[in-house]
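Late entry, iron/sulfur cluster complex.
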Amino acid sequence: MAETRSTCPYCGVGCGVIIESDGTQISGVRGDPLHPANFGRLCSKGSTLHLTAAAPVTLRQRLLHPLRRPERGAAPQRLGWNEALSEAVDAFEGVIRRHGPDAVGFYLSGQLLTEDYYVFNKLAKGLVGTNNVDTNSRLCMSSAVAGYKATLGADAPPACYEDLAHARTLFIAGSNTAWAHPILMRRIEDAKRANPALRLIVVDPRRTETAALADLHLALQPGTDVALFHGLLHQMLWEGFTDNAYIAAHTSGFEALRSRVREFTLRETARITGLREADIVTAAKWFAGLDSGDGRRAPTLSLYCQGLNQSRNGTAKNAALINLHLACGQIGQPGAGPFSLTGQPNAMGGREVGGLSNLLSAHRDLANPAHRAEVARLWGVDDVPAQPGRTAVEMFEAAADGEIKALWIACTNPAQSLPDQATVRRALQRAEFVVVQEAFRDTATAAFADLLLPAASWGEKEGTVTNSERRISRVRAAVPAPGEARTDFSIATEFAQRLEARLRPGKPSLFPYAGPEAAWLEHRESTRGRDLDITGLSWAMLEGQGPQQWPLPEGATEGRQRLYEDGVFPTADGKAKFADLAYEPVAEPRDGRFPFSLNTGRLRDQWHGMSRTGVLGRLFGHVPEAAVELHPQEMARLKLAEGELVHVTSRRGSIVLPAVASEAVPLTQAFIPMHWGSEFVSGRSSRGEPLAGVNVLTSPTFCPISKQPELKHAAVKLLKAELP
Ligand code: SF4
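Prediction complete; structure with ligand written out below:
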């Protein structure tokens, strides 16, 4: 029996796992006691990885051979890899030559490893000459990226997991940590046991399992977070809680923000957010940390996730929270700082290699000509195009409009996960050629593929991922991929090599990689001198010393745990910037026609579209089926008994679900989990097209800065379904 150290593929906590196998079949998994993210613990999803990976049912659902659909709607036919990649190259080259490079798009995933991401990004921006490369991480953390850059000058979470043990106040905003990041919640419970004075503020419209543990639950009206954070700053200024010496020495732009928050009086903030004035006062006092009476400021750590990010006001929400940390000097010391949590296992690695349409390698900006020139020089190409690429929602809107004609979709399921499914379906139908690179055969998106390429899954591939605390961990293969499936790295690299033979014949290859480590070394070199410099790191070091945090520049013996301890920020003047951004209410406020606020989110035991977790019966023990959760009083008002079917309708479509009563959901609100797709949740678009899943309802409106869509809010109505 062999043991292989690797990393859990489910969430951004990035827990270490030890895979047990006989070299052909995975038989067990346990937490890695040496991994600093989890110290041996695993949650319900992580501890059943071996069952989901090895279950016979999973194998039946795996995509084992390349498949080609001779025409749309026809049954796919098997073909060999050589033929499959030739067809893909023919199709992409043809579109590029006929319509230009911006007629193709690559839509990637936070499930990809850093090296996979690196190759795809270079393929699109360096070889094809388009910035149309984006990722499902756009749905997850692009507002966090924009928030950090707008305030701290770089996309770098400054805190670390160990800060949980040093904090006096934890401020959790828009995160049901107990379900979405369970091992982090165990660490919070540990911290609370060790330090009973630790107090928890949770900002969330719902009384989630996390909110139920809070010392102060701020159940604000959906989408009003910026008003709350501006109101807290107003209150801190009123009470004299701000750290004026820190503001003067280490920040800029405070006066403009001071003017902005003047209108967010206690009364006005309470009116907008629906919170009690006394609770806002308490939150401001606890956050500032000056209430112990000894004159010392106690540290506050903020944890935040999709409730802030998935919003048309997402960047402002992130930045307004970071403003509070800067105003109180709550950053750069043990137990203090803003700390965004990444949803996916490698959303952070994708950011590092610039795997978004507006970014370049090593946190460089596409909009910066000097950065484009640096990356072109590193890659050995003439230039990187300046034209901004399409972000996730924009990419599918462009395909629906006929502007993008060839789509390459890797390890993600946009026909379930993107908002406004009617538009996404039209995009997939209208595109001339759709490649879907996937481990699983039956995803909603696979049904639209002209070419299906079988990809290796967890436990079958090599590379690295980076978790929420900037820690790079190795992912290792314990068993070979089934059938003819290949790693994402080798699929991307071979396609790139074949395409470059057509687009730049006779020139040295841009993709001369013997394996993932070679691509990683190229990425490492691109970080030299940047905020995430890892030139002192090697795979041998990851092997010998275990996972490491960045930055880790040449000469350093270990990664840096915490950033900005010296009060110097990666901005032109070395100072952090207060972001003066306006509060904008949700894009679709409730009204007489659509009187409910719909919220969507994750369950404890399921992952994304359930292609992995949905194969295991025990993971349905927690929540067995899709349902819309409503407050009991709303159930009574709508004359709904528990489990009765209800039409949930937004401006974009309608789905039918059982209704269940939940005291956790406030009046006038509804909650639907995001996991169930076409097999379980049927519905129709507003034009009558048959559609499925909660994203029939959700809005494509996105934050103008981060381009992250407002998946956390749509106005809906509910109508009891009459049985025929
Ligand atoms: Fe995996 Fe996240 Fe659970 Fe850790 S907390 S075991 S990374 S799903």
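The longest strand covers residues 653-661. Will revisit in the morning.
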